[in-house]
Amino acid sequence: MKRAQDKKGVQVQSRLGRPQTTRPISLGTTNAAISFVQSVAQASRGDKGLYHEFDGALRAYKAGSITISETVAKMVAIFFGHPDLLLGFNAFLPKGYNSIIKSVAKELDFSQAYSFVQRIKVQDEALFKTLMDIVINHYRGNTSTTEDFRNKVADLWKNHSALVEEFVCFFPEDLFNSLNPNENARERRTYMDTPISKLDLSQCNKCSPSYRRLPPNYPFPSVASRTPLARAVLNDKWVLGRISEDSYYGNPRPTNKYEKAIQKCDDDRYELDMLIETATYTLEGLERLSDAIQKQGEVIVDDYLTAIQLRHIERIYGEHGLEALDSLHGDPRSTVPILLVRVRQKSDEWLALKETSIRLWADAVAKNYEKSRIIPKK
């Protein structure tokens, strides 16, 4: 697996080296290229899906399924929230595309724009591609006037009124006044920066002494793949509000050391259960992948393993997790049997630990329960 990591820079160069009418994107084999790929891998420790999306975009470019423009659009979306990576990638772009990255990096609010763009990409891939084409063409100077840019954006958002208010927040205030005359976007942005626990819900509708409806302009979460039944019964708009200044919500009562001991047992039990369940889920995916390799020979790992399963493999290998994933993608036939043994070994260890811990948890709860009910004075 170490060898796979050492060749990372060369592998990326080969993924991008597809000939086109313009000079292709090329990281080359320089120290700068290797350093950039290592920076992406390092950032993936805090954003587990980032490296896989980056790698997937490069693979798609190599296969010829996307153009340079589409690759740039994907990188803009992938590296939103990571301006250093976005500007680092800029150095390897063909002439004419560099200014796009610089302009986007300079003008967009990364933290909120990243969430916005990712949500659009999940909801509607076609809408996402059209939006990125409009923005990229504008920053390349292909849009004749600012008015033309505004008109294209207005047409795009014609049937997406909830999204336009969020979109205009990421540009100068006077650019999209005609699209947002009623200040809704500014209100929504204020709500985005304020935790629900800090909102004043005293004037909002209520359905019980404790539940309040969020304000109309509050940016409700957008969830992909919800069924009509789920949309009908799941709640996004009603939240638990404070009944009074001394209510539990917003002012949780202090806990004593006995209650904390019980809470720690619950936390440990939950963490261990999650590890065991995820290990079982990962083993199922690895077994499907192993069967596919035996039948088909060449396979695409991401068609058989989800992001959760890949994260679990990375977690098991700790600081060598990225090396394990690189080896898995580069040589699945040799790597999958090793991963199966390791994941199964960890699963057995966690099951044995749970069996031992159940008795310890039961003793701790029995010992601390009565004293945990004593509420300390403020």
Automatic annotation (TrEMBL):
Main location group: nucleus
GO biological process, one term: negative regulation of transcription by RNA polymerase II
Keywords: Nucleus, Repressor
One Pfam family matching this protein: Sin3_corepress
Coiled-coil region(s): none
Subcellular location: Nucleus
Residue ranges, compositional bias (Polar residues): 11-23
Domain of life of the organism encoding this protein: Eukaryota
GO cellular component: chromatin; histone deacetylase complex
Region of interest (Disordered), residue spans: 1-23
SUPFAM superfamilies in the cross-refs: PAH2 domain
Chain ranges of the Histone deacetylase interacting domain: 203-303
GO MF, one example: transcription corepressor activity
Name recorded for this polypeptide: Histone deacetylase interacting domain-containing protein
